[in-house]
Amino acid sequence: MACNSIDRNAFFLSMTIFGAGLMSCVFRFYYVKLFLDHYNISQPWFQFAQVVYLLWNAINDPLFAYFQDNSDIVFFRSRRHSILYGAPFFALSFLLFWFPWGQYQSHHWLIGVHFMVALCCYDSLYTFVLLAYCALFAEISKDLDYRLTLTRYSQIAGVFGSCAVTVVEFVSNGLDDFQAFQMCCIFIAFLAWISMHFTGKHVRTNPSYSYAKIMSTSTENEFSKSDTNEGMFGEPGKQLREILTGDFIAFVATNFLQILHMEYGANFMVIFGDQLIPAGDISDVTRKLVYGSTALLPTVMAVLCLSSVVSQYGYYDMIMWTYVVNIILAIGMFFIGQSHTWILVAFFIIDRCLSSFVFSFFNLPLSDIIDRDQEKYDRKTPLSSSVFGYNALFTKPAISVAPMFVVALLNGYGYESLQNGSLTDTGHEHLRNAMFNISCFFPIILSACRIYTWSKYRIRHSHTQVAKHIES
């Protein structure tokens, strides 16, 4: 493949990350605060919707992954067509959160139904489109340097996508101007759809491997299945058994804890920051810049470290040392205390950056797992979507577990009373102390667990340099 076509592919592939990044950073930063503080959802409905969301997460990822790897329908099997046709629906699902279904009264049941439906619809389209993106990423090449090139392009696109939070903060004045916030979200959804449309239209790989050839291989595999009486229900089970290696389990355990940490930071930094950082210590403009920077800086760090750090030391050591640094910083913050405002601000930013920074490289080890799986079982076409889908099956519940767990902790210290304005000054102080302790001990516990699980991962270097799956 020519060098200029590699650059072209990397650019157009990265447009999906730009579009998804625009929406996902706004979603993660605002959806908990919006439904808790603006719509005033009841706590039972909040927790129930998160449980439904968790269960739906467990179903849709392997379901979509199986169809994308095994269906003979072009909409499912062709990765770029999945992105092309799924993008407009993904953008519409993003808008579901920001437009009330009526005149909401505090704790009304309709808020809970709105929350539950919006979460499930958004996750379904997010899963469908991003699974296709991840499969394209893994299948274009096995070469680590080229995968780093793809990651570099995607991270640069992510830098621009992450700016959405900063823009929305200033335009909406931190959700105070809700109509301006809604208009921003409409523009973001439109821009995201156009960006992902470019991926679906323009990403190309080696034309010698056409979609027709992929389908021909699938037909041969179907005859093989019939001969062995594997059946349509036996095949997913067989695939799962082949995928569930020790390295995959170690990666999934680490990834679950990583997502737990990342979602905790994304959902609660603005809530903790508003309570722990006194309004008189920093200006409103500085506060907005701080919140916006936590979405932007991790991708900037990733871009800067791709060539110099990952290429030289490998992603395994880089990820491990990040967890060690996370523990040291959190212990230091606990002993310094919450009275030093600017140190606390720096800690919030660094902790948020480290968790998101590590996650940005997790396509690399998962792609290596796909390589080993294909080599071991001598597959003609890889199960890329299935590997990413089963990873999501076990890790995506962390997206729901994080807010459920932290909200339950906060309610034990009067957070629900703070929302309805009945919290006393003494209770407010207890709540602030609880938020500070969570901010310190949550990263310590999660990082210690991740050091253990990541140490069990054994595929620590990419090993092949041949393109594995080509789609025209």
Task: Describe it.
There is one protein chain. The protein is mostly helical and 472 residues long. The chain has 18 helices and no strands. α1 (3-38) packs parallel to α6 (144-172). 45% of the residues are buried. Mean pLDDT is 80; it is low at 1-5, 206-210, 223-233 and 463-472. InterPro entries: MFS_trans_sf, TMEM180. Pfam families: MFS_2. The chain crosses the membrane at residues 12-31, 83-101, 113-138, 150-168, 180-199, 248-270, 290-311, 318-336, 342-366, 387-414, 434-453. Keywords: Membrane, Transmembrane, Transmembrane helix. This is Transmembrane protein 180.
Task: Label this structure with key terms.
single chain, 472 residues, mainly alpha, 0% strand, disordered N terminus, disordered C terminus, transmembrane, transmembrane helix, Transmembrane protein 180, TMEM180, membrane
TL;DR of this structure?
This is Transmembrane protein 180. The protein contains 18 helices and no strands.
Overall strand count? 0
Uncertain spans, ≥5 residues at pLDDT below 50?
1-5, 206-210, 223-233, 463-472
Determine the strand fraction and express it as a percent band: under 5%
Q: Output the radius of gyration.
A: 22 Å
Shape: globular
Termini distance?
13 Å
| Structural class by sheet pairing and helices | mainly alpha
Helix content: over 70%
Number of helices: 18
Transmembrane segments: 12-31, 83-101, 113-138, 150-168, 180-199, 248-270, 290-311, 318-336, 342-366, 387-414, 434-453
Protein name: Transmembrane protein 180
Pfam families: MFS_2 (PF13347)
InterPro entries: MFS_trans_sf, TMEM180
